[in-house]
Structure formats: C-alpha cells, structure tokens
Predict the structure.
Amino acid sequence: MEYSINTPRNLLPEKGFLKLWIPLPLHIPAQQNIAIVEIEPQKAIVGNPITFGDIACVLLNFDLADLEEDLNVNIQYAYTRFQQEFKIDQDRIGPYDENSSLYKEYTKSYKNTVYDERFRKTGRKKSSKMRPILIYRQRKFMIILSKI
C-alpha cells in the first residue's frame, strides 16, 4: 500500500507546527505481517510507528518555519489481510441517538480535532437514504480521523 500527501508550500502557514497522524494497518487477527516499507521524510517522524494496541498510526511533526519547499509525505507499507464476514440484522439497527453519551463522546471536538457541521451535514445527507451501519462503512475514514 502506498499513499502520499503533497501540499504546496504557499497553502501552509509561514510558521508554527504541523502535526500529521497518519493511519496505519492495525495488528489484529484479520491483519497480519505488517511491514513498514518507507516513511518519508524520516526526519519528521516522532517516536516509532504504532501498529499494535487500540490504534495504528505514525506521527509526523513539521516546523513550518523550516519548511522551504512543498510538503511531500510518502508512506509505504505491506500487510496480509484476511477476509472477515459479519452478519448484521438490519432490522435491529435504529436511528442515531444524538443525545446518547456514546454519540457525544465520538462526535465532539477535542484539542486539535474538529468535528463540526461539515461532518454532520455529510452524515445527514447520506442518512436520508441509508441505514446508520451503511453510513459508517462509507464514512469510516472520516470517523477514524476524528478519533485520532
């Protein structure tokens, strides 16, 4: 798997710090043999990439005052993915309870993570035609980002 982030320098603030938490595959029974092939730029890596535990990611930190060229990040990793199958009784899936503590916990803004009307609007737009479990599958990446 390979992906990259390329951002022109002029779109970033002149100074301050940019922290990127990049998701990696999490070591679970369905995902094994995780190998980090390359993370560039290496000098931006804080600590070690994490693939065990509750969440898998690598933290990159950039001092924008020192960034003279475009921001270019490249991540390459490999892993073995095994099929998982889940049987879900869709008749037992109800609407979101926006007053529940669980909903409030995972949709709140926290420190430098913002969950705002843009995310709510996307969810409402999709939920008008789909069940919540199907929305989750389409929004999985967005939800993961909001939890990091």
